[in-house]
What does this fold into?
Amino acid sequence: MTRAAPKIASYPFTTLEPVLGTLEGPDRQLILADIPGLIEGASEGAGLGHEFLAHVERTRLLVHVLDLAPLDASDPEANFATIEHELELHDARLARLPRILALSKADLVTEEQAAAAKAAWEQRLGEDVPVFVTSSATRQGLDELATELLRRVPVRAAAPAEDGPTAFGGVCPEDVAELAEHRVFKPASRRGFKVDRVDDGLFRVEGEAVDRLIARHDLDNEDALIHVEGRLRRMGVIRALEAAGFQPGDDVEIAGVVFELDPG
It folds into this structure.
């Protein structure tokens, strides 16, 4: 959408710092900030949470980007709810900013699946949060998204009075409807795994879901590793490892990748 050239790779947390780009409109420009993904606990400083949230504080509108079919088998609803929760814990004002939802990677699903997901999110979030189906590979929906951004973000007016509300297109944040609550669904039955003790201090975990999880993350990235550990705990992998004799700091092998696991 802009001339920015952020690092792109096939795993989450590729972006290590905010990347700015300029969106050109017919008679104005907007600065878009690609904010690195936030992990659970970011509002309390987990990973680089405070640093990233400080950048979010400067925005006037938030665009959530959610994969239509996450390859790491994560739940889009749970991902959305986690981000919203961390934003609200950090600053209640952020919870009142206008939102747009971009459902990405539409080229990886059928038109029927994309349309069904769009309809479900529109019902969940209400008419105040526009939902777009997008694909960076085919550019589907990007022009429409750009038009909506230029429409929804007004030309900056004079600074508001101290402690007064900031207006967005004539609407104060306090008047923006609260987002709907989000249901978190339990993992599907195909997400099983098996734990084996290979040697002293080395354990192997096998399973389709855990393999996809590791394949989608760069474990040299501290935030990505923290996220992976949290996902393994929620999937029950940490508990199964501990039952097999695992101790914090032992090595774990998943999908051929061996890494030290020291869950907090």
Q: What stands out?
A: The longest helix spans residues 76-90. The CA atoms of residues 9 and 259 lie 20 Å apart. The two ends are 39 Å apart (CA to CA). The domain at 19-175 is CATH 3.40.50.300 (Rossmann fold).
